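Supplementary Methods. Inverse-folding protocol.

Structures were first reduced to a discrete structure-token string of length 113. This string, shown here, constituted the complete conditioning input.
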């Protein structure tokens, strides 16, 4: 973990605790996930309790606390996609108990249907 790079991101936001989400987004854009060491450093440098940093990182779906694979596949199965004319892709995704494995973090997590 490159703490110097994390410190530069935090310094870019003047170490302001109200920039927590933006700081986490920038760290994740570089690492593709939020390692625990990065969250601890953000907590320390912004003066925000670690539990609050972790709460924000787990609340928003945009953040990942596990390494992601090189490529992400997002499949919309919601009503909004259906209404917009998306065609069903029967058999295009595994059932909820099957996992695709191409590397760390590429497993389908519970609730990712």
């Amino acid at each position: 973990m490159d703490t110097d790079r994390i410190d530069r991101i935090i310094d870019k936001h003047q170490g302001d605790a109200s920039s927590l989400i933006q700081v986490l987004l920038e760290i994740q854009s570089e690492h593709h996930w939020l390692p625990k060491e990065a969250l601890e450093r953000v907590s320390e440098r912004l003066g925000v309790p670690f539990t609050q940093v972790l709460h924000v990182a787990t609340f928003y779906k945009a953040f990942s606390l596990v390494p992601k694979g090189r490529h992400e596949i997002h499949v919309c199965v919601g009503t909004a996609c259906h209404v917009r004319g998306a065609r069903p892709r029967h058999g295009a995704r595994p059932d909820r108990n099957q996992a695709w494995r191409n590397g760390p973090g590429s497993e389908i997590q519970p609730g990712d249907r």
